[in-house]
Write a structure and sequence with these properties.
Helix content: 55-70%
Structural class: mainly alpha
Number of helices: 16
Number of strands: 2
Strand order of the largest sheet: 1-2
Radius of gyration: 45 Å
Distance between the termini: 108 Å
Largest sheet: 2 strands, parallel
Strand content: under 5%
Shape: elongated
Order of helices and strands: HHHHHHHHHHHEHHHHHE
Number of domains: 3
Length: 421
């Protein structure tokens, strides 16, 4: 390819030379005078000015050279334009390549960091008794002494049975029993502190602790300490259950958006964990289940150590009345207090509260029984509360602020018909 700058320079020089040559040619021709024949009768032939053949050879050559030079100049300008575009394209490609290089460098750094992290994990202790999903790569989980936590459970079980018996009889629990429970619970709290915000949950209390990766490993440690360990096949089945839990959990999270109610998320998590624990104890033998959760504490909130009740106990708000009619009125008042929906608005939604209470199929209970909360009725109460409050939100709420308050309610109202003493 010719150098466009050189080409333009040659063209300009040629044009100057051509113009000067033409001037010299013309300057050598005698100019006509007033007496010259050309000034008189004979008009110039009009065709002569436009006829190339009529021009002197020198003038015709000059015109040809000028046309060629103009063509060369036009071509050179086009080449310059093309080269400028090519330069701009290359600059764009360079910028894109630089950005790609930065991204690749970042990915390589992340990969190197991940490799280093995995190497450190592999070099450290792995005390897991059951592993599934990505949790086997979590340092806090891998390095925990699950037999130690299992031993804490073994020691707590008889104490919890004693506590449950005292509560059922309406007696004040022995302070020494409570102290012993708290002493063993410190081991669990020490582990819990390590995994807060690191295991997924939508619960404000004990959500991370009740995650399946913790429960199956504590169970394995507890049964081993009690002399009735899980078999390898049982561990494989529990790991498969853990994978299924993770899949269901991920599906739930993908279905949420910024308008999803907090109570909905809490209910979904409790319901999913209850499913998981139920399935776990289909894998164990009856004897193993009795060791883990004796019948005296089974299903009881705060006493059953393999229950989502552990993560719900801080959200429970009991609502007690002697009969359904007064319970319904108290329920309306509770909803007004929690959501600021006007009482007169709720008076026009009687059927919603009737359906709410009827769905719970409440049975009268003694005052003593009303103090012993069970997980399944709590989960059912959360479900029916969601149904009722969505019905109120859809049909009776027009205030945007109230809509927002409903989304952030996390208290589970637990209606109870309590017999008078």
């Amino acid at each position: 390819m010719k150098d466009p700058v050189q080409t333009i320079a040659v063209a300009v020089i040629a044009l100057v030379v051509g113009a000067a040559g033409a001037w010299l040619v013309l300057s050598g021709v005698e100019r006509p005078t007033a007496n010259s024949p050309a000034m008189h009768d004979e008009p110039a032939d009009a065709d002569t000015a436009d006829n190339e053949e009529a021009l002197p050879a020198e003038k015709q050559g000059t015109r040809d050279d000028s046309s060629k030079l103009r063509a060369q100049l036009t071509d050179s300008r086009k080449q310059v334009t093309d080269l400028s575009k090519e330069r701009d394209d290359l600059k764009g490609e360079k910028t894109s390549l630089e950005e790609d290089n930065k991204k690749l460098k970042t990915k390589l750094e992340q990969r190197d960091g991940r490799i280093k992290e995995l190497e450190e994990l592999a070099a450290g202790p792995n005390r897991m008794l059951v592993s599934f999903g990505k949790w086997g790569e979590m340092k806090e989980v891998r390095e925990t002494d699950w037999n130690d936590l299992g031993e804490a459970y073994v020691k707590m079980i008889p104490l919890l049975k004693e506590l449950a018996a005292s509560m059922a009889e309406g007696k004040t629990p022995d302070p020494e029993t409570r102290q012993k429970i708290q002493s063993e619970n410190q081991r669990l709290i020490a582990y819990y502190a390590k995994v807060i915000k690191k295991l997924p949950t939508n619960a404000a209390m004990n959500g991370e602790f009740t995650h399946p990766i913790n429960m199956v490993n504590i169970l394995a440690g507890q049964l081993a300490e009690a002399g009735m360990p899980l078999s390898d096949d049982q561990k494989k089945q529990l790991a498969a259950l853990g994978d299924r839990y993770d899949e269901r959990w991920d599906a739930l999270q993908k279905g949420y958006d910024d308008k999803t109610w907090m109570l909905q998320k809490l209910y979904d998590e409790a319901d999913l964990k209850q499913w998981f624990y139920d399935e776990v104890f289909k894998v164990t033998t009856t004897d193993q289940k009795d060791i883990a959760i004796p019948v005296e504490v089974r299903g009881m909130v705060g006493l059953d150590l393999y229950s989502p009740g552990l993560m719900l106990q801080g959200n429970i708000r009991p609502l007690k009345s002697n009969d359904l009619a007064s319970l319904k009125q108290n329920l309306k008042t509770s909803v007004t207090n929690a959501t600021t929906i006007p009482a007169e608005t709720l008076d026009g939604a009687e059927y919603i509260f009737d359906d709410w209470l009827n769905a719970l199929n409440l049975q009268p209970m003694s005052g003593m029984e009303s103090n012993l909360y069970r997980t399944l009725p709590i989960i059912q109460a959360a479900k029916q509360q969601l149904v009722a409050m969505h019905a109120l939100d859809d049909g009776y709420v027009v205030d945007e602020e109230i809509h927002k308050k409903l989304r952030f309610v996390q208290t589970i109202i637990v209606p109870q018909v309590v017999l008078p003493e």
